[in-house]
Automatic annotation (TrEMBL):
It comes from Steinernema hermaphroditum. Gene3D superfamilies: CAP. It holds the Pfam family CAP. GO terms for cellular component: extracellular region. This is SCP domain-containing protein. Residues 25-186 form the SCP domain.
Length: 220
């Protein structure tokens, strides 16, 4: 990843009803981490696979906002300390999961999680399996499903939960939910094209605007 980094969050922090261990600063850090990566992706700065090729630029890549509703769903599942995906019918959203253990000496699991998920793009690649960046079973089976959910162009919301689990082995369990849900077979991970430079470039949702600094669209 290269280029400038941008801050997307407010100084007040995102307030949610207390559902777990997240602070307003945690929530804003989660959103900021996601949006920095999405912005870099939209501008064609992300490595796609071990060959060193770059992922294509994206049109209609949307900026994420934080959802307290998705946090509540994610926190409820994290509290169960079962390192597996929750039943789809209980969340109506995409989901990424991550676990870390004391031996890994992680100081920030909430930020390590999106970094780990996103690393699938550089380590495994997408374009070699789907040059048009359409979601296929080959892409998913390559082990890039966490990245593709994070980069899903039409997704506009994220909410996460975190739990300290005594078993197995003092696991820290991170769950993030996304809406709209990504990883829909046959749909574009994102639309290949020029990143937005004006509001009229943002067409997925009516009334959208363009953040010209980040090249991400904003749903209103």
């Amino acid at each position: 990843m290269g280029g400038r980094l941008f801050v997307f969050v407010s100084s007040q922090g995102t307030q949610c009803p207390t559902t777990g261990g997240l602070t307003p600063g945690d929530r804003d850090a989660i959103v900021d981490a996601h949006n920095k990566l999405r912005s870099s992706n939209a501008r064609g700065l992300e490595q796609d696979g071990p060959s060193g090729a770059k992922a294509p630029t994206a049109s209609n890549m949307y900026q994420l906002s934080y959802s307290c509703d998705l946090e509540a769903i994610a926190q409820s599942w994290a509290n169960g300390c079962q390192f597996a995906h929750s039943p789809q019918n209980t969340r109506n959203a995409g989901e990424n999961i991550y676990a870390t253990f004391p031996v890994q000496n992680s100081n920030s699991p909430l930020l390590d999680a999106p970094t780990s998920w996103w690393s699938e793009l550089a380590e495994k690649g997408v374009g070699q399996y789907s040059p048009t960046y359409t979601m296929t079973t080959d892409v998913f089976n390559a082990g890039t499903g966490h990245y593709t959910q994070m980069a899903w162009g039409a997704t506009t919301q994220v909410g996460c939960g975190i739990a300290q689990c005594p078993d197995p082995d003092s696991m820290t369990f991170v769950v993030c939910n996304y809406r709209v849900q990504g990883n829909m077979m046959g749909s574009p991970i994102y639309k290949i094209g020029n990143p937005c430079i004006k509001d009229s470039d943002c067409t997925t949702y009516a009334g959208s605007t363009c953040n010209t600094t980040s090249s991400l669209c904003i749903q209103h």
